[in-house]
Write a structure and sequence with these properties.
single chain, 311 residues, alpha/beta, Rossmann fold, 7 helices, 9 strands
Length: 311
């Protein structure tokens, strides 16, 4: 019986795709009964939580060297050939049913779509029943599909709770925003500390921190426009140093980002600013009410990090 191999491994950052895919291929090859042979190889490096329609839409598989497994395509190519008039295979085999999908609906949809074309979906760690599914195999398959989705959602929930706890403890993730500097300390886990790994807390930057406070005051208290603030900042770059280098190289000046909204946190230095001084460098008119807002008690630089706020 001609069989198509179906493999999947998670994103590049979470594991070694090469080792995972090689293990899956060996498991399926060792499982093959007499008379079964692999005639097509379909595998992807992507999340199993994606809908079938969104699978095989990236080229992440190209970024990994040393995967000595043929590739006829991904999930999208498998489904396309299975729906054709003369597919090369009569069955599809994966190491575990969670390699087909970690979403119960999509895993079941894949199984039904293949079955509509007379193609059986096998898993190497399930009992082989060539005659077709029976009550016991259906129960096992559905249980494993439910566990796969439960495991995926549980990991996401635990990860989110961990990030919340990490933040509440004062730790930072990623690059220190403008106005802060990174205070790196040895990792509290002894095993990670032995590897030289660290954790980071944010402390105010003695040079750039006052710049953030000044921008906050200009914008919130004095109601200055964004072009006016950029003009004032660029008049004295020594006192108001712009953020550091970007993807395109050094960023020597402050510049209003494209599509900036009238809220703090939208600063960009995507290139040199060459615009002349604004015609009216004074305070802009308040949007509502007749007076100025009360000054904040402790302006925070977290809203003015040199990047566009996320939505």
């Amino acid at each position: 019986m001609p069989v198509a191999f179906l493999g999947r491994t998670s994103t590049l950052e979470l594991q070694d795709p090469r080792a995972s895919l090689h293990r899956q291929a060996r498991s399926v090859q060792a499982w093959l009964p007499p008379g079964f042979r692999i005639v097509a190889w379909y595998w992807d490096i992507e999340s199993g939580g994606l809908d079938l329609e969104d699978r095989s839409q990236t080229d992440s598989w190209r970024k990994v060297d040393g995967i000595d497994i043929p590739r006829d395509g991904g999930m999208a190519d498998l489904l396309a050939e299975a729906a054709g008039e003369r597919p090369r295979f009569a069955a599809v085999a994966c190491e575990d049913i969670n390699r087909s999908a970690r979403d119960s609906y999509n895993a079941l949809k894949l199984e039904k779509d293949l079955a509509a074309g007379g193609i059986t979906l096998f898993a190497a760690n399930e009992p082989l029943v060539v005659e077709g599914a029976n009550a016991s195999t259906i129960l096992l398959r559905r249980t494993k599909q439910a566990i796969a989705e439960f495991f995926r959602i549980q990991i996401k929930e635990d990860c989110w709770k961990g990030l919340i706890e990490h933040t509440m403890d004062g730790w930072n993730i990623g690059k220190a925003p403008y106005g802060y500097t990174a205070d790196r300390v040895p990792h509290p886990a002894p095993a990670k500390a032995a590897q030289g790994r660290t954790k980071t807390r944010l402390i105010p930057d003695p040079v750039r921190g006052p710049v953030v406070t000044q921008i906050f005051t200009w914008r919130v208290v004095q109601r200055l426009s964004v072009p006016t603030m950029a003009w004032r900042l660029n008049r004295d770059l020594a006192a108001y140093p712009p953020p550091g280098d970007g993807p395109g190289g050094p960023r020597p000046a402050w510049r209003r980002s494209c599509g900036t909204r009238s809220t703090p946190g939208t600063w960009s230095t995507a290139g040199p600013a060459s615009s002349p001084a604004p015609r009216n460098p004074g305070p802009s008119r308040p949007r509502s009410g007749s007076g100025q807002p009360n000054p904040p008690t402790s302006p925070s630089p977290t809203a003015l990090c040199g990047t566009r706020p996320r939505r």
